[in-house]
Design goal:
With about 230 residues, the protein is of the alpha+beta class. The chain has 2 domains: about 90 residues, no CATH class; about 140 residues, Sandwich (Immunoglobulin-like). About 25% of the residues lie in helices and about 35% in strands. The protein has 3 helices and 14 strands. A 5-stranded antiparallel sheet has the order 8-5-10-3-14, with no helix packed on it. It starts with a strand and ends with a helix.
Length: about 230
Amino acid sequence: MEVTRDPVNGVAFASSDGGQLTNGTSLAETFDNFLVLLTTQLQHQDPLSPMDTTQFTEQLVQFTGVEQALATNSKLDRLIDLQTGNQLTEAANYIGKDVSSSNIVLMLQDGSADLSYTLGASAADTNVLIIDENGNTVRTLSGATSAGSHEITWDGKDDDGKLLDDGVYGFLVSAVDADGNNVPLNQQFTGTVTGVKQVNGEVILSIGGVELTMDEITGVKIPDDNAEAA
């Protein structure tokens, strides 16, 4: 709805509910209106006390600067959208590939889940705890104890041999030396990317029910069955 006010120096003033300078249109039209206002002010100024032309010049410069800044912002928005689109296209290449991430969650898919860990030193005992969504430990696996990287495939069964439902689980690797001191380690899980999407300008990879950002990915490889087929 348009609201009108009393004319200023013979020029009618109009505004809108939008509250924006240009009401969603180009500043070019508003700039033309500004020039009309400026010339009308000049026509109605007191000849004995003329308005300062320097002030008019400054207003023109400032108004032009605002228009250029808005145009620059619009171009930057288009560049950001283009960059995000390119990232989404690149991320689509991850679909069907196995990715690794330093995370405490893993995805049980088709009754199997792969995880890995790296020991900073030799350990006397290494355990891998599989945890369900309620925080219960459903399986305890024994892992290799030598220093270096190791991989474990969980068969999806609990400690009683029951096959659990596919879904998101947590896991925790713990290792101690002969004196019972904790051994430094890093743990990772590996899963197959099933889809990609964009959320708030950020590209997200879906590994079943697990969602990871690009910067959370630590490794990518072609699944073994695909590699053999190639």
